[in-house]
Write a structure and sequence with these properties.
alpha/beta; six-stranded mixed beta sheet
Length: 218
């Protein structure tokens, strides 16, 4: 199993491409042309760790460019059906602090407002064979209503924005809930094997889950 991290330049959110043979799982897609070209002919599953605009901007283009299906936690769906939540204007606002280069990068992408419906959703948990890849998804609300974490293969753990090492989990955005994070998601994360390899929604990857949890000031 191979894992590639491809950060979204204007925001710094991470897209991950997990492959084994001709099977691929893409987590939090952005419209990277090289990735779409590379995955031609692959059996592709597009997966969201949550519904925020910096983690979903490539959904439409990848669905059109690839024979891909989609998966996310069921509470993402109402958000993604509302064009006010998916407009590229929100990405432009998020990228202001990154200066002119980020602004120009976004303009060159020429993103349009789209809304999305899933092929598959899950509630608290899902276990799924995607060809040669095995995925388990877990609802981890708190950062947003639709936040989820995924374990792929024996030891890769994708935490989205439910755990970004060295950073407090943001719960002030609409749909965030600090009490739910502390009562449900943090205890769940602490039950997992600490030697899982952590792939967060922002920042570097490759530390252990236990090391990542140890950096958190919940």
């Amino acid at each position: 199993m191979q894992i590639q991290r491809i950060p979204f330049p204007p925001i710094g959110s991470n897209m991950y491409v997990v492959t084994q043979g001709r099977d691929a799982i893409v987590l939090d897609p952005w419209p990277d042309e090289a990735t779409m070209q590379r995955l031609q002919g692959y059996h592709v599953l597009l997966v969201l760790t949550h519904e925020h605009v910096d983690h979903i901007s490539g959904l439409g283009r990848m669905q059109r460019a690839l024979p891909a299906r989609t998966l996310w936690q069921e509470n993402c769906t109402p958000w993604l059906r509302n064009p006010g939540n998916t407009t590229p204007v929100l990405l432009a606002a998020l990228s202001v602090s990154r200066g002119a280069a980020a602004r120009d990068f976004l303009r060159a992408l020429d993103l349009k407002t789209e809304t999305y419906a899933p092929d598959m959703t899950f509630g608290d948990h899902i276990a799924l064979d995607w060809g040669a890849l095995y995925l388990e998804g877990y609802a981890t609300p708190g950062h947003s209503r639709g936040s989820a974490c995924y374990r792929i293969g024996p030891d890769a753990f994708f935490s989205g924005d439910s755990l970004v090492p060295g950073n407090a989990v943001v719960t002030r955005l609409r749909g965030g809930d600090a009490a739910v994070l502390m009562d449900r998601t943090v205890p769940f994360l602490r039950t997992l094997p600490p030697d899982l390899t952590l792939y967060p929604g922002h920042g570097r990857c490759g530390m252990s889950l236990g090391e990542g949890i140890a950096t958190m000031d919940w």
